[in-house]
Amino acid sequence: MEHILGTEWEIVPAGGATGEAFFAKHKEQELFLKRNTSPFLAVLSAEGIVPKLVWTKRLENGDVVTAQQWESGRELKQAEMNNERVAKLLKKIHGSKPLLSMLERLGKSPLLPEKILQILEEELDEELKQNDVIVQSMEFLRKNIFLIHCDEKTVCHCDVNHNNWLLAENNQLYLIDWDGAMIADPAIDLGMLLYWYIPKKEWHDWVQRYGLTLTDELLLRMKWYVIAQTITSIQWHKIKSRYQEMEKWLQFLKGLDHEN
């Protein structure tokens, strides 16, 4: 990275799973650098959903490096996920035509429930397939798959964990880490957020702030996706030998009502 910015810049790894992200500082200027970010980042920046994109450079080896304005701030606390600004920003994302258009141009096709169920049935290991709560959950997914179709397909972040919400020092709210974005039913994001962070008695008000009515149909769609995503997490943690996390998500799955 030094050869892009010059030796006067201080550049350090910014962490993250890929090892492709860096923090760069020179005098008063601070940048977040990332290698081979999707062109999707430019639209996210233009929409004000992530910190401002400053420049993009293509290297001789074909790699692309992006520089974003570094925003000092903090991640949201779990209790803050009930804030109206979270609902409004998620609604803005789900309603954005430029975001949807860019993902379509990048070749993304809608993620349908049938595909999610097919992946689970093909990739779940034999031990988990025998687990009682997984068996019960998979039966729920199969039984309800034809009841959850939704014509609305939007850009979904697919990991609306509170760690991915950045509140900058200037009070601007961002949703970062878009590597897993998909075109899908917005209930994917809504379900994760409500089940993880919002007391059930407050769901109606939260969904109203988002701009919808909490219908039985929406409740079923959210539950379907939360169950599917939880099974995916259980399998992932098992593969990584993170058995404590796997057990936590098994208990979460066990606590879900598997009646529709």
From TrEMBL:
Residues 14-213 form the Aminoglycoside phosphotransferase domain. It comes from the Bacteria. Transmembrane segments: none annotated. Pfam families: APH (PF01636). This is Phosphotransferase.
